Amino acid sequence: MLAWLDRLPYPILLVAAVLLGAAPFLPEPHLWQKLKMLAGGTLHRPIDIFDLVWHASPLLLLAVKIVRQRSRR
C-alpha cells in the first residue's frame, strides 16, 4: 500500500519538508504558528486545520518512510 513512499527519494521529501515546514519564512512559519494555535486551543477554523495538515504532511511522510525503512532491517 505504501510502496510509492518507498520509491520516493529522500532528497525530495527533505526539500518538501523544509520548504513547506518553513513557508512562509516571515513573519513566522505557518507550521510553527499552527502548532502554537493547537497547543493554545485556538485551532478551530477549517482553513487553519487544513494549513496544519498541509504544512506538516511532508514531515509526516518523511517520518513514515524512516520508520518503514528501519522496521525492515
Q: How are the secondary structure elements laid out?
A:
Layout: H1 3-7, H2 10-22, H3 30-40, H4 46-71
Helix pairs in contact: 2-4, 3-4
Task: Report what the structure shows.
The protein has helices spanning 3-7, 10-22, 30-40, 46-71. The mean pLDDT is 89. The chain contains four helices and no strands. The chain has a domain at 25-73. The protein is mostly helical and 73 residues long. The two termini are 19 Å apart.
What is this entry, summarized?
The protein is mainly α and 73 residues long. Helices cover 75% and strands 0% of the residues.
State the low-pLDDT regions, or none: none
State the distance separating the first and last CA atoms. Answer: 19 Å
Strand content: under 5%
Succession of helices and strands: HHHH
Number of helices: 4
- In total, the number of strands is 0
- Shape descriptor: elongated
Q: Overall pLDDT, averaged?
A: 89
How can the largest sheet be summarized? none
- State the helicity in percent bands: over 70%
Report the C-alpha radius of gyration, rounded.
14 Å
Supply the helix-strand structural class.
mainly alpha
Key terms for this structure?
mainly alpha, 73 residues
